[in-house]
Amino acid sequence: MTSSNTDGHTDIGRLTERWLDVVASGPGGGLGDGDFVRSPAGLWLALGVVAAGAGGETAEELEALLGVSGKEAAGAVGAVARALEGTDALEVATCVWSRVPLYRAFKEALPQIALGNLDQAAIDAWVREATGGMIEELPVRLGDDTLLAVVNALALKAPWRYPFEESDTDVRDFTDAAGVRHEVMVMHQEVSLADVWDVGATRVVELRTRSERGGAPVRVRFLLGEEGAGPREVLPAGWAGQAARVPLAADAVSIALPRMELRTTDEVTDRLAELGVHRATGEDADFSGMSPEPLAVSRVVQEALLKVREEGVEAAAVTAVLMAPAGAAPPRRIRMEWVRFDRPFGVVVLDGAGELPLFIAWQEGAPKG
Question: What are 258-305's pLDDT values in tens digits?
């Protein structure tokens, strides 16, 4: 299969929006799963490895979702992995764990992907190491029929360039999506006017992180939409381009942001058909470019974590694709803009270029922290 895009950035954004469409159309009146954190980049990278070994109509379906398949998928996975190496404070690792033979051409097309023998304890230990202990084990247990697992891990620990003062953190109200008021711990800070803008009816606040290894600092954006707006309406403003941004008519901006900690385990398998992927999980799945063993996708599971504190942001995600046998201011009045995240809001974490959604999150209920 062919694709004009080989860096993956545009396709990860497209996958993110399709994933949000599926969530928004699910049970929950358009708000889908309530609080969540997900890693579009992690899902794209794991499925991209699988797509590199797909053929026929299986490859066509995966290409419709990912933008690439076959050799182009292998190249795009490598390009994205190399691009992410330039983002400070971010660790990315992918490994194919197998108990069936893999074609030499498949392995050589993915030189940056590690290989291992399929073993639950070994994979759990790899996950702990790859995420710095933020995720303790693979979010899915291997079955007797599991022949192969593609596992991607992303881990981020980034300090703010300007940390919040803990002495300024106090108790404030937060009204959840059901209209219930809660008392939560809220951090306060004035931010640069250049780091706040509107995209349509959504206000975007970018908190800068500090580079400690010389790479491009990760971009962390908090998004506040209109009352009643859900993640599908709000979160895409986090990666909207410069042309869509409207600066604020203010002289200074002060934010009130809750501490937060979100963890989600997402059974993506249940969403694959809605994302247009049918053959990869069926008896007629074609992964003939991966192994002489007939294989089909049996489970896709992701666990993701996001923590926001006074000193910085931490995030991690592990995505597993399991495969089984096929068939199986100046001296004047200051116009101060107050941005209070005191109702449902979103979070988008982007790579250093500000293009690739590494993590997306939606805080609908009372933040925990």
Answer: 999 999 999 999 899 999 999 999 999 999 999 999 999 999 999 999
Shared-domain flag, residues 224 and 336? yes
Query: What are the start-end ranges of the H helices in the chain?
Result: 9-24, 40-51, 56-66, 70-84, 104-109, 120-130, 231-234
- The per-residue DSSP string of 303-360 comes to EEEEEE-SSEEEEEEEEEEEEEETT---SS---EEEEE--S-EEEEEE-TTS-SEEEE
Same domain, 142 and 48: yes
> 3-state class of 255 per DSSP?
strand
CB 179 within 8 A of CB 365: no
Q: Residue with structure tokens 């247009």?
A: 276
235 plus 103 within the same structural domain: no
Number of domains comprising the chain: 2
Instruction: Report the predicted TM-score, pTM, of the whole model to 2 decimal places.
Output: 0.91
Find the angle CA(360)-CA(263)-CA(273) to the nearest 5 degrees.
65
2 in a domain, yes or no?
Answer: no
Reported as a single tens digit per residue, the pLDDT across 43-88 is 999 999 999 999 999 999 999 999 999 999 999 999 999 989 899 9
